[in-house]
Amino acid sequence: MSAGDDAPQPTDDAAAEDATPSGSPRAADEPEAGGDDDAALLAAVSDALGHKERGNAAFKSGDNDAAVAAYADGLAALKAYRDAHADSDDDADKASATTPAQVEEREVRVSLHLNSAMALLKLEQWEKALASSKAALDVQPENVKALYRK
């Protein structure tokens, strides 16, 4: 038996999509992680990242008010997704992310809170900066930047 006979290789994109991250085929009865929910979440994350880029540009140019507004718009885009897809778990912020899209959403949400906190510090809006840092810590309690800005 040659080395190429050990494991069949996917020959098209559809076969590659049926493989798990480790490369092993997904069992027929194993549900696809996320599915349509992940597509909608990734769209919300993409929208939020656009707002984040706009906020970063405003921050770099010294327009901290515009930066805070852009970061708030990004957070609102993510919140709109979470509100539309809410389940009975009222503690969703502290639930562990189970799909790559959920992990990405949490990372972007933390980043938006942290960037907002930094812009608010520049504006000397201490209470709002503290609230943004605490919001980041609610999602990611071990975040060093959030602890520092708090």
Question: How would you characterize the overall build of this protein?
Answer:
The chain has helices at residues 13-17, 36-60, 64-84, 100-122, 126-139, 144-149. It is an all-alpha fold and 150 residues long. Helix 2 (36-60) runs parallel beside helix 4 (100-122) and helix 3 runs antiparallel to helix 4. The protein is globular. The protein starts with 12 loop residues before the first helix and ends with a helix.
Characteristic key phrases:
150 residues; mainly alpha; 63% helix; globular; disordered N terminus
Any chance you could write out the topology, listing elements then pairs?
Blueprint lengths: L12 H5 L18 H25 L3 H21 L15 H23 L3 H14 L4 H6 L1
Helix pairs in contact: 2-3, 2-4, 3-4, 4-5
